[in-house]
Specification:
By secondary structure, this protein is of the alpha+beta class. It is built from 1 helix and 6 strands; from the N terminus they run βββββαβ.
């Protein structure tokens, strides 16, 4: 039985906005370990489920889909946001 992981999309570190961080992602756990290709040296495996990533508007919708299809899943809770409040004058101290 394939297992899936449901998590909330993290904020992109390269941008200041929070675009699409309200979406939830369902992604499959790897079924086999990656191994290096003897010719190129790239890491890969025969598991094609790793390439599938489904997006949902809520965590409940992702859980309902996983239960409907018969997937074992676990939900990774969204990290709490911590704000670093500082003034512009703190750059010169």
């Amino acid at each position: 039985m394939p297992t899936a992981r449901i998590y909330q999309r993290p904020k992109n570190a390269m941008q200041s906005g929070r675009y699409r961080t309200d979406r939830w992602i369902l992604e499959f756990e790897p079924a086999e370990a990656k191994r290096p290709d003897p010719l190129t040296g790239w890491a890969g495996s025969g598991d094609t489920r790793e390439q599938v990533r489904l997006t949902f508007p809520t965590a409940e919708a992702a859980q309902a889909y996983a239960e409907k299809v018969g997937l074992a899943f676990h939900v990774v809770p969204a990290p709490t946001r911590t704000l670093k409040l500082q003034s512009y004058a703190d750059n010169f101290r």
